Amino acid sequence: MAIKVIYVARHGYRSNWVLKGPYPDPPTGIENDVPLAQHGLDQAKELGEYMKTKIDPSLKPQLIISSPFYRCLQTAQPTKMALDLPLCVDRGLGEWFRVERATIPYPADVGTLKELFPGLISDDTDADDGWENCSMPSRHGETEEDIFNRCKEFLSNFFMEAEKKFPDVERVMFFTHAATKAALGMNLLGFSSVRDTLDDSGKILNNPSCSLDKYEATGAGWKITMNGNTSYLSKGAEMNWSFQKGFREASDEDIKIRLAADAAIAAEKGAKVAATMAD
């Protein structure tokens, strides 16, 4: 069967976005692979409850594909458990790291993730007959054009891989990151750039933390029927991000929190380095 409905969710509120620490180390030991804050875990539960109780049974997803980064799997977990769905990991849904970044984090392998999330991942990507990565981010970082093309390749291969591995599935849910979520959407809607607008009024894709997009096949392409939905979140939209505006669309308080958290994390890392040198 062909895929007819695609849900795309962004991960929940990250632990390095909160104003005050302590800031937990990445459970995988990989730079930038930060876990969710408690608020993000709560958001993930709200999303899972929404998918279970508010989505018509005929429209519920039948399969989850997640980024391998820890925060995305944490966000996917309540939905996977609520709907009892298979969940596969795909590098093609991973985070966007700019080419000018000093280091490009490489996510944990599936074996490590299965140890960290017992029972969550249904299909080992490393197995001979398992889910195959539909695209791979560059180890040297990506431009905006690169992530757009990565998502184009991902979608092309995803439809073939889903037909091969899950031939009865018509509805899927992706768990990913803001930039990847936006790039996927712009590809599905037939645009040629991540910075295109959806219409002449300048409308763009919205990507708050733990927000949800929904795309439905039309026969001639795809239409968007949810754009950054956060109706199920008790605190509404937070940390909205776009290629056009960065975090400027977030509230002033959100921006203040993010900048303060970044400064606090840098200070905490500096203190650890100083303590190590003193030893």
From TrEMBL:
This is Transcription factor TFIIIC triple barrel domain-containing protein. It comes from the Eukaryota. InterPro entries: His_Pase_superF_clade-1, His_PPase_superfam, Phosphatase_SH3-domain. It comes from Naumovozyma dairenensis (strain ATCC 10597 / BCRC 20456 / CBS 421 / NBRC 0211 / NRRL Y-12639). The gene is NDAI0F02710. Gene3D superfamilies: Phosphoglycerate mutase-like. PANTHER family: TRANSCRIPTION FACTOR TAU 55 KDA SUBUNIT, UBIQUITIN-ASSOCIATED AND SH3 DOMAIN-CONTAINING BA-RELATED. GO terms for molecular function: phosphatase activity.
